[in-house]
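Hey, quick one: can you model this chain's 3D structure?
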Amino acid sequence: MQLEPEIDRLYGLPLDEFVHERDELAKRLRREGEREAADEVKRLRKPSAGAWALNQAVRRRRKETDALLAAGERLREAHEALLSGADPAALRDAMQEERALAGGLADCAEAIASETGKSGPALRERVRSTLHAASVDEEAREELAKGRFVREREAVGLGPFGAGAAPAAPRRRPAASKKAPSKSRGTADRAGREAAKRDAAAEREEAAERERQEQLAEVEDALDEARAALAEAEDAHAKAATRLQAAREAVGEAEDEEREARAVARERRRELGKREREAERLRARRR
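Sure thing. Here's the predicted structure for all 287 residues.
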């Protein structure tokens, strides 16, 4: 079996069908002896409402999605050029293009979410943040290209990418004096170490937040699976109860029919006995 098209199909399904169809696909793969593929499918997580809506928008607006991916690439190139002293106008233009395309896809995702009653400004902003994150994060970029987001993403560490304002021209550092006092160098070193500590702390916090989000996603997946299993069990119970009630009614009807037939047979037996006695009397007279 070609697994990628099947996975792509799962992420294109209505949100409330994902868990059931994923589990059915995993069962089918296991029956066919594809245990590794079955395990891979079973690990797929159900998208959040915003991620699901964005996945559907990607499928409906493929041309706009490809344009956004290309705009993100130009945005990164313009940002790198700016750091080398290039004209900031190129970065401003790239940011405007990226924001416009992201806004269009976010509008589409919100409209799709409204079909399930889950739309709103908060969802739209989470989708926009996810689209901005895809401009600089390779993993998010790949999820955008495939339309397989599982959770919304934060546009962390984007600098001018997500600020919404035009970037300022890069400032040049004044040339350091050849005879700079050692105290100034010490201050600069301390400032550098403090900045490095702040960056490391921010990275640790981001890693911790990602871990918390992953744990929450796993719990939510388990909850979805438990709900699906409960719904399946309740459906099976309802069907069994219906069959039992039908069987009880059939037994009741059969018992009624048996009692009626027994009464008729008893009456016919009495009638037969009466006829036999009458026949015996007539035979006796003839003798």
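One thing worth noting: Confidence is low (pLDDT under 50) at residues 162-181.
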